[in-house]
Amino acid sequence: xxxxxxxxxxxxxxxxxxxxxxxxxxxxxxxxxxxxxxxxxxxxxxxxxxxxxxxxxxxxxxxxxxxxxxxxxxxxxxxxxxxxxxxxxxxxxxxxxxxxxxxxxxxxxxxxxxxxxxxxxxxxxxxxxxxxxxxxxxxxxxxxxxxxxxxxxxxxxxxxxxxxxxxxxxxxxxxxxxxxxxxxxxxxxxxxxxxxxxxxxxxxxxxxxxxxxxxxxxxxxxxxxxxxxxxxxxxxxxxxxxxxxxxxxxxxxxxxxxxxxxxxxxxxxxxxxxxxxxxxxxxxxxxxxxxxxxxxxxxxxxxxxxxxxxxxxxxxxxxxxxxxxxxxxxxxxxxxxxxxxxxxxxxxxxxxxxxxxxxxxxxxxxxxxxxxxxxxxxxxxxxxxxxxxxxxxxxxxxxxxxxxxxxxxxxxxxxxxxxxxxxxxxxx
Length: 428
Fold this sequence. Notes:
The chain is mostly helical and 428 residues long. It has 21 helices and no strands.
């Protein structure tokens, strides 16, 4: 009976997973887009990801307090509201033609998505038995790459195709009025899909607000003073498995963001094509990511999640290292293949790290979302490497990140049986 009551809420939550996939993957091409529009270095344009993923870090903990004091539903609605407001801000940003205004809009959008993600992931975990929580979360997360593909498609068709072909040198030689007209048209193209997404987020907000949702495994405290954050934080920090999980998530998100942020630039260099054609390969990457997510969810019925995590992380590290010496189509398809390896990493690390946390789960979830800070910092590191040594060499950055994730998978394989016993004891 409880399961049937959770079906509609679960379906609505999957639309949230898709929504932040749309936002994240419309944002990835903006690094190259703003680099061209405003004639900036790779490091400067990577501030897009700093603003986006930095907001995830800043808002995850407040989201945990919202979830703990009120409910997961309240957290989801708060996140959707902030995200819609940030997306609507792209309209005044396009009128101002200011890079800083776009960064502010991205920060507010991502702040909402941080609250949304901090709430939705443990919400799904609380909707059923502990035994299959990681697999259930992988299934819900499988709809995230659906949104990712939509985001890449919108970015490629509505933004990248609208970029003026003029080079940085040609733009520098233009009259101020001519350059301003070109930039205005390009920034209008950036604005349109974000305002459309804002409208979709409002519709999702209304649908979820109309439902009465309370998972049986969710605990809400009656008073703010009952939230003993210091004690909770101490327990989480002293838990080596959770602590390592946060570190692994930091490097996982950093690697994923690096790969998708600089795919277009790598393909342009490797195949000598323009932004729109290179964007097709980012789309192929996300299609593979989508298919692999469903395949890995099925495969987890036969192979342990930690074993899959370790194996695919090692493969991703090897493929990333190959990009530094490879060339042509072989290297480009190796880059695309990395997205297949990425497919299971985020939800698997998330589910494994939260096992056995009991009442600390809501704040534990916040820590794992704060680890998304890796997506803010590591692309800037890679951007600096690109400016100094070139695009190909820069892929050593995600290669190192994947090795850290692989080590966490091995760590869970070694400690898994003991933690399973502890988890059953907590549940009992």
